[in-house]
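Spend some time on the protein that follows and explain the fold to me:
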Amino acid sequence: MTQLNTLKQKTHEINTEIYALYLSYRDSRVGWHVRMLLALAIGYAISPVDLVPDLTAVFGYLDDVVIVAAGFRASYKLLTKEVRQESLLQAYEDMNSDTPTSAFAIKVVSYAWLLLISLLVVFCYKLLHMHSL
């Protein structure tokens, strides 16, 4: 039973870290390059096009895990310590609040989609303006 509790605790910590990364993305002190790196990691995770096809045993999913984890880690490392601490504190407060779990889950999924859409808009905007120079 203790392994199950440990697994639940680790899962909660990972969810909190991802939510904190989202909150830090929304901070105005974060540069566009950090946002772009995060968008690329999320985009690769949900993209049907992979470097190694998923039908390839083990390596098909391993490349997804490695690239997405590396993107999250790199974007997390590029954040300032102050932004990381503030967003992590806010994430812990939100995750441990008394709101119903289903409402919070809907919030997290909605924020993830908003994050993805806004990152795509920023990417397209930058792409369009790079050609006009």
Q: What stands out?
A: The radius of gyration is 17 Å. The chain has five helices and no strands. Residues 2-131 form one domain. The first helix runs from residue 2 to 25.
